Amino acid sequence: MELRHLRYFTTIAAEGNLTRAAERLGIQQPPLSQQLAALERELGVQLFHRRPRGVEVTHAGAAFLEDSLALLERVDSAAARARRVDKGVAGSLRLGLTTSAATHPATPDTIAAFRSRYPEVHLTFVEGNAASLSDAVINRQAQAALVRAPVVQAAELRVIQIDQEPLVAAIASTHSLARRPKGKALRSISISELAKEPLILVRRPGAQGMYGTLLDAFRKAGLVPRIAAEVGNMLTNLTLVAAGVGATVVPASMSGVLADRIAYLPIRSAKRMVAPLTLLTHADETDPAVANFITLARKVRG
């Protein structure tokens, strides 16, 4: 039994006439009669009473018609969903996020735009640092991830830069460097002043890129930084800054975090230090939903 047999049967039942059913199906009436007879032999039941002016379903035929219509509806629905998934307008997408990438305006803007445009794509989220999320993408545990600087170099990773922004220094608002004369703009901090402060940084495996950017700036200036602590993520960084433990550097978009306790200062350096926003996918990712997410992420910052 094939799906076409069910379509033949339901069309005959709807028309109540083999000739009209054949015309609707676009086939000749004799072959349709043969297909109906073959279906009845396979089922071992009579599906129609043959009347002078047409056909009428039997009791067995009525039961078979109900189930056939339900089955065909499910098949049509499955086919339509498969086509939507093939276009990336349905399905699922597992997205990784680092805490610092989550604070960049492009992240909520892209997610909101994606949910609005593709409501049938179910989004799920996984948190981690750049290293763990890179591994998640490589191992197919996440289809895409938004991180800051990439920290893993692997042939399996596709790296797409979405945006970049300045790095700023974060110090406790009670610190002398945070004070400013009345009516004057908040001052900036030099790389040499920053080197004198105890620094709280995200440990290298999690933020190798920005960690390396800062250390490279110190090295080029002939300075040796004082690393007071290494932590797991930038929110912990800022919590310790607010507590007066030390200073740190973060992307400018994080400047709203604990703003009543932390002063965020532009950094004066020979080389402008920036924090990228990067989208990671598997190098051979073929899911159209991922392609649609990439397109939207680029448009949001375009």
Radius of gyration, CA atoms, in whole angstroms = 32 Å
> What is the H/E order?
HHHEEHEHHEHEEEHEHEHEEEH
Q: How many domain units? A: 2
Shape: rod-shaped
Q: What percentage of the residues does DSSP assign to strands (E)?
A: 25-35%
Q: What is the residue-averaged pLDDT? A: 91
SSE blueprint and pairings:
Layout: H1 3-15, H2 18-25, H3 29-43, E1 48-51, E2 54-57, H4 59-86, E3 90-97, H5 99-102, H6 106-117, E4 120-127, H7 130-138, E5 144-147, E6 157-172, E7 189-190, H8 191-195, E8 198-202, H9 204-220, E9 226-231, H10 234-242, E10 248-251, E11 262-268, E12 274-282, H11 288-301
Parallel strand pairs: 3-4, 3-5, 7-11, 8-9
Antiparallel strand pairs: 1-2, 5-12, 6-10, 6-11, 6-12
InterPro entries: LysR_HTH_N (IPR000847), LysR_subst-bd (IPR005119), WH-like_DNA-bd_sf (IPR036388), WH_DNA-bd_sf (IPR036390)
Family: Belongs to the LysR transcriptional regulatory family.
Domain HTH lysR-type: 1-58
